[in-house]
From TrEMBL:
Enzyme class: isomerase
Molecular function terms from GO: RNA binding; rRNA pseudouridine synthase activity
EC code(s) of this entry: 5.4.99.-
Organism: Turicibacter sanguinis
NCBIfam families per record: pseudouridine synthase
Family: Belongs to the pseudouridine synthase RsuA family.
Keywords assigned: Isomerase, RNA-binding
Protein name as catalogued: Pseudouridine synthase
Length: 244
């Protein structure tokens, strides 16, 4: 990797700022001052230091966010804030993106990463990675309707095409006079899928939150809009393509 790119990606500033840093003679490769931004380095074989501190480069970053409402699971948008807008500048240099879609008015777990392979494993319906949600639903939810959801229903997929959902896991958690709290697990992520699924059996989702992706559970200590890096143990949970 070019030295200027390495320094930019590890938080030492923009390319312009990195060039000024190189001119200061504070950047060394294997103990030798280097001022040429085009020099290529291999951190597996060489030691790069800035102000005598070793530069450590990370190829991949994995972040867990508790997404608030009125926020898009996207990298940029002209009208609404996105999950990327909530990140500190340090993480912006890694070009992370949300792994999968979470509707603007839906809260909860979003994984942000620059590991495209892992993101594909999570998103692809063929991998059968369950995403678990809690929903507040108005309308009567009979056993027959729950069975329909678990078997699969037909909905519009956001492009106007009819889409048959894969079997879901559905469980009623509690009821009150206004709505029913339901836990639902699906392996797909079509546009407004959970809302459309309940609508297909006469229900209306008035609140939706994602709690888990596969074995990765949302850290409930995270306030809405907060995020943190995954632990090694949490990352290991996402390496399994199939979840029971």
């Amino acid at each position: 990797m070019r030295l200027d790119k390495l320094l930019a990606h590890t938080g030492y500033g923009t390319r312009t700022e990195v060039k000024k840093l190189l001119k200061s003679k504070e950047v060394k490769v294997d103990g030798v001052v280097v001022k040429d931004a085009k020099v290529k380095v291999d951190l597996s074989k060489q030691c790069v230091t800035v102000f005598d501190e070793v530069v450590e480069y990370r190829e991949f970053v994995y972040l867990m966010m508790n997404k608030p409402q009125d926020c898009l699971s996207a990298t940029r948008d002209q009208r609404y804030r996105t999950v990327i807008d909530l990140l500190d500048d340090y993480y912006l240099m890694f070009d992370v993106a949300p792994a999968g879609r979470l509707d603007r008015d839906t809260e909860g777990l979003v994984l942000l990463t620059n590991d495209g392979k892992l993101a594909h494993e999570i998103i692809s319906p063929k991998k059968d990675v369950y995403k678990r949600y809690v929903a507040h639903v108005t309308g009567e939810l009979t056993d027959e309707k729950l069975n329909q959801l678990e078997t699969g229903v037909e909905i519009l997929d956001g492009t106007g095409e009819v889409f048959s959902t894969k079997p879901a896991k559905v469980k009623i958690l509690q009821k009150n006079d206004e709505w029913t709290e339901v836990e639902i697990c699906i392996t797909e992520g079509k546009f407004h899928q959970v809302k459309r699924m309940f609508a297909s059996v006469g229900g209306k989702v008035i609140y939706l939150k994602r709690l888990a992706i596969g074995g990765l559970e949302l850290d409930e200590s995270l306030e809405l809009g907060e995020y943190r890096e995954l632990t090694d143990e949490e990352l290991a949970l996402l390496t399994f393509a199939h979840q029971e």
